[in-house]
Design a protein that fits this description.
This protein is an all-alpha fold and about 425 residues long. It is built from 20 helices and no strands. It is about 85% helix and about 0% strand.
Length: about 425
């Protein structure tokens, strides 16, 4: 048995293990929506506590993204990945025993830290593990980790919770994190960056300060971070409220879960396509422009009631197709931005810090985007003006894409 496992480890591509570790971390984020109704009843959670439980991962990213990115660059990329998976395991096991909402919320914050420790060093690790001629394709695949994890949580969570209870769902996903941590430790090599780095005699705080200044003084990290923020804010707002939108038209239960999972999973297609297109030499600016443009159009077709003939002409099925296009073609944006984060980082030692800043800005977008859409929908009495919020985000994204194109042109000159 031991030799069989060793043979499996020997045949495994470490780059794929890194991508799967990201998917595993994303499952921990996606495990919650399916459990919320049960948790509200079992723990006596209020609607406000449910909101905090949903936003806690984003809150961790908002406050700790840059700090965790700095830690990953200093601690070591594989060590950070391994520690994050162990933290997800511990928080998940304890969460299954939680008897009150405040305890579960605190453990959710701990899961947020574990999620960041897993996802922030991954692009740097992939840069070390994948040949240059295949890097863009692999980073495009990496960009699909979040929609894949969310889709898996939406698909399997309801079944497990119905037949085994929500604690077993927590313990099952926690066990997945532990197995993934063992796989990472056995397969992913130690950091080339740490092996090749020259000894630094300055203090850790001085090194962190240097990385921080390098990252925040360069325009590249700001451009990719803000682009990710305007993308993630509208994507989560639309996908996150789909069950509520479906409920208003009488689509509930398993059908609603499957439709939402399909819309989320469509995002993977764009991520994978972006890697292949970048590999073939398609400019990153063009991919971002198409992605933001189609997101604006898809949201308009799905939600707008103006012009009248469009609203009357589009059936619910056609509007669902528009949402799928919104998510699917929009998926080219994160895949492209992860590749740009590696290219536009000020130095090799600041890639994780750049990704951390990108994650922090993305978390701001995810934290504030859905409430803004909900506020507009509440004021209008329906979701018909959702496209105005998403359209404004897309317009800003198009402007940022143009600035990124100029930045890349300046580097190539």
């Amino acid at each position: 048995m031991k030799s069989a496992f060793q043979g499996l480890f020997a045949r495994t591509n470490p780059a794929w293990v890194v991508v799967l570790a990201g998917v595993c971390a994303a499952v921990q984020v996606g495990k919650l929506p399916a459990a919320l109704p049960v948790l509200q009843e079992a723990l006596g959670m209020t609607l406000l506590q449910s909101g905090f439980l949903l936003s806690m991962v984003q809150l961790a990213g908002m406050t700790l993204g840059l700090a965790v990115g700095l830690s990953a660059d200093g601690l070591g990329l594989r060590r950070s990945l391994f520690a994050g998976l162990l933290l997800l395991f511990v928080a998940g096991v304890l969460g299954g025993w939680a008897q009150s909402a405040p305890v579960l919320i605190a453990l959710r914050a701990l899961e947020g830290c574990g999620f960041l420790l897993v996802t922030l060093p991954a692009p740097s690790l992939l840069r070390q593990l994948v040949p240059v001629n295949r890097l863009s394709r692999m980073l495009g695949l990496w960009g699909a980790y979040m929609p894949l994890g969310a889709a898996l949580g939406l698909l399997f969570g309801p079944w497990v919770i119905e037949h085994m209870g929500w604690p077993m769902w927590w313990w099952g996903t926690a066990t997945l994190s532990l197995l993934m941590a063992i796989w990472v430790w056995q397969v992913v090599p130690t950091d080339l960056q740490r092996q090749n780095a020259q000894p630094i005699k300055t203090s850790a705080s001085a090194v962190w300060s240097l990385r921080l200044r390098q990252t925040l003084r360069a325009p590249g990290p700001w451009l990719v971070a803000l682009s990710f923020a305007v993308y993630s804010s509208q994507w989560l707002a639309v996908i996150g409220f789909l069950p509520s939108i479906y409920a208003q038209v009488g689509i509930t239960g398993g059908t609603s879960a499957v439709l939402t999972a399909l819309a989320a999973a469509a995002n993977m297609v764009g991520n994978v396509a972006s890697g292949r297109l970048l590999q073939r030499g398609v400019p990153a600016q063009r991919l971002l422009t198409v992605g933001f443009g189609v997101m604006a159009l898809g949201a308009f077709l799905a939600f707008s009631q103006w012009p009248t003939f469009l609203s009357e002409g589009l059936s619910p099925a056609a509007k669902f197709v528009a949402v799928v296009l919104f998510s699917g073609v929009g998926g080219m944006i994160p895949g492209t931005l992860f590749s740009l984060a590696v290219r536009l980082a000020p130095s090799e030692g600041t890639v994780s810090t750049t990704v951390g800043w990108m994650q922090q800005c993305s978390s701001f977008g995810q934290f504030f985007g859905p409430p803004l859409v909900a506020w507009v929908a509440s004021g209008a009495g329906s979701w018909q003006w959702t496209w105005l919020v998403t359209g404004a985000c897309s317009l800003l994204g198009l402007f940022l894409a143009r600035q990124i194109g100029r930045q890349l042109a300046g580097r190539a000159a």
